[in-house]
Specification:
The complex is a heterodimer. By secondary structure, chain A is of the alpha/beta class. Chain A contains eleven helices and 14 strands. In chain A, helix 6 links the parallel strand 7 and strand 8. Chain A starts with a strand and ends in a 6-residue tail after the last helix. The relative contact order of chain A is 0.14. By secondary structure, chain B is mainly alpha-helical. Helices cover about 75% and strands about 0% of the residues of chain B. Chain B is built from eleven helices and no strands. The radius of gyration of chain B is 19 Å and the shape is globular. Classes of the chains: A alpha/beta, B mainly alpha. Chains A and B meet through helix 2 and helix 3 of A and helix 2 and helix 5 of B.
Chain lengths: ~300, ~260
């Protein structure tokens, strides 16, 4: 598939602060592309530059072949946005919000009504058509934001943390719906803090930190590329650390609070060695996940 | 922010009207609340000040009894208040708390058009309130027709003036409660000393000159009074020109200050 978004040396500075530090990436048509990273990594800033609401400082950014600096209206016309902070219009009912939003895209009343009804059905909100927005639950608001972002039949959908703060039922429903949108050939760009979500939804992701891209690729392949297949978690102690150094030198480890994570491609052998020679009593063995890669690349330091 | 940016010409199209339509739709949803104050307020002011206090004002002002002098000033005040409060507190709520502007600029509309739509809507609020008030004043026999109808276009241009001034404050205010500063330091004094409750001619001549040069409400009061008393004079062209020029300048500044705030 052809690239629908390309960024070269894309940068955004706020005075002295470098929010996005000369990144290169490309998004292919009809894929689900994820931006991952701790708070302040530059994900949202990058998304805002793509949707033409925040001007870039330097570099190149093309959306569907159009330059974000010169063709913002054309780009915005083909993009649907579901923002991190719900900005539905609290003065309106569900259907009013959609119809008024449709006017911003110059949809005729008839078109807007037809699309709104179709979208309400798709996002399982048809029973809430005339409900006031502030009476909706968090999950319903998220679904309405998604419905609204689809109103202009976008080629590109931008979802900024689409499931933040939702219960598992609502989250799974949104995952299903995103999956269905993908099947229609819509390019979806999302940010998320949930690694499970990224691994499940995204064809490709980038992991960002401090405005730079640290890694890029398919979530499963990234796990294989950056860390061993399994993680053994043991209680940390001086004895264990020393033992691992003596017996299992060469294995990567990571200290997570009181626990030591040991990365290995031979879980059985490593485990038996830990139990037999290192005096470890209780352990957890599990497959490595995207979260392990994420923490390995971005560190455990808390971001404020 | 550079000076050149402050005076850059806004990039505005007809799409601004969609923002206007959005606000009008919300207004109509709560029309009862919105229509009652403009009816009640002038009646109260006219009763208390015009006929109550005015009972003791035996002297005519420029040939008009006090209620006739006061009524057009009340219209001018309502023109000022409707648009100023719409484009300060109400716009700030939409911008900051409801994130309505963010939602709209994610569509083909740009910030210039959103802010223009807001100011056009502020002016429209002035037209609505001033028209209701004109009816009330007419009922009291204090308006002379047909010239009194000029209040309606005056409300639009005057409303746009105070929308633009209000929007400038909204663009720079850090929080909603800091909007109390322009309200009590700019609007309230203007409300009292713009030739509203007593004629400007009572002021020392230097103060009169200053008021004519820099106080926006003075000009709106002058035109409003000329319209309802049917006493149109050539020197009102100065007031009209003043309003048009100042409105145009602050309209542009408001859009650019808002761009500076919202586009980061």
């Amino acid at each position: 598939m052809a690239d629908i978004i390309t960024a070269e040396k894309l940068a955004k500075k706020y005075g002295e602060l470098v929010a996005v530090d000369g990144i290169d990436f490309s998004v292919k048509e009809a894929e689900v592309f994820g931006f991952l990273g701790p708070n302040g990594a530059g994900k949202t800033t990058t998304m805002r530059m793509i949707q033409c609401v925040s001007p870039k400082t330097s570099g190149k950014l093309l959306v569907a072949g159009l330059d974000v600096d010169t063709n913002p209206r054309e780009i915005k016309r083909m993009i649907g946005v579901s923002p991190q902070e719900a900005n539905l219009d609290p003065d309106f009912s569900v259907i009013e919000d959609l119809l008024v939003y449709g006017r911003y895209f110059k949809l005729s009343m008839e078109e807007a009504k037809k699309s709104a009804d179709r979208l309400l059905e798709f996002f399982q909100l048809e029973g809430k058509r005339d409900m006031a927005i502030d009476k909706l639950s968090g999950g319903m608001k998220r679904r309405l934001l998604l419905a609204r972002s689809m109103l202009n039949e976008p080629r590109i959908l931008i979802l900024d943390e689409p499931t933040v703060g939702l219960d598992p039922q609502a989250r799974h429903l949104i995952w299903d719906l995103i999956g269905k949108l993908k099947e229609r050939g819509i390019t979806i760009i999302l940010t998320t803090h949930y690694m499970e979500e990224a691994a499940r939804l995204c064809d490709r992701i980038v992991i960002m930190d401090n405005g730079k891209i640290l890694a890029e690729g398919n979530p499963n392949k990234l796990v294989k590329r950056y860390i061993a297949s399994h993680v053994i978690e043991v209680k940390n102690s001086e004895k264990v650390t020393k033992c691992i150094k003596n017996q299992l030198d060469g294995l990567q480890t990571d200290l997570a609070g009181d626990d030591l994570h040991i990365f290995t491609n031979e879980p059985k052998e490593t485990l038996s060695m830990l139990l037999k020679d290192c005096g470890v009593e209780s352990t957890t063995v599990r497959e490595s996940t995207l979260e392990d890669v994420f923490l390995k690349l971005t560190g455990r330091r808390l971001r404020e | 922010m550079k000076l050149r940016e402050l005076f850059a010409l806004p990039n505005v199209g007809l799409r601004s009207l969609e923002v206007w339509r959005r606000n009008a739709k919300v207004f109509m949803k709560t029309y009862r609340v919105n229509f009652i104050p403009p009816i009640i307020e002038p009646i109260l002011y006219l009763a208390a000040l015009g006929f109550g206090l005015g009972f003791f004002v035996k002297e005519e002002i420029n040939g008009h009894p006090y209620p006739e002098f006061l009524a057009p000033a009340l219209i001018a005040i309502t023109i000022m208040n409707s648009s100023f409060f719409e484009c300060t507190y109400a716009s700030f709520v939409r911008m900051y708390y409801q994130r309505t502007f963010d939602a709209i600029i994610a569509t083909p509309l740009n910030v210039d058009e959103v802010i223009t739509g807001e100011m056009l809507w502020g002016a429209t609020r002035s037209v609505i309130s001033a028209s209701i008030m004109l009816v009330v004043i007419t009922v009291f026999g204090l308006a002379s027709y047909p010239l009194a109808l000029l209040v309606v276009p005056l409300a639009f241009i005057g409303g746009l003036l105070f929308s633009a001034l209000g929007m400038c404050f909204t663009a720079v205010t850090p929080r909603i409660d800091t909007l109390n500063y322009p309200t009590s330091l700019f609007i309230t004094p203007m409300f009292l000393v713009s030739g509203t409750f007593f004629p400007l001619s009572l002021l020392p001549s230097a103060a009169q000159t200053l008021a004519n040069a820099v106080v926006p409400l003075v000009h709106v009061v002058d035109i409003s009074r000329a319209a309802t008393t049917g006493d149109l004079q050539i020197n009102l062209l100065w007031s009209l020109a003043w309003i048009i020029v100042v409105t145009a300048v602050f309209f542009v500044i408001a859009v650019n200050l808002m761009k500076h705030r919202l586009i980061v």
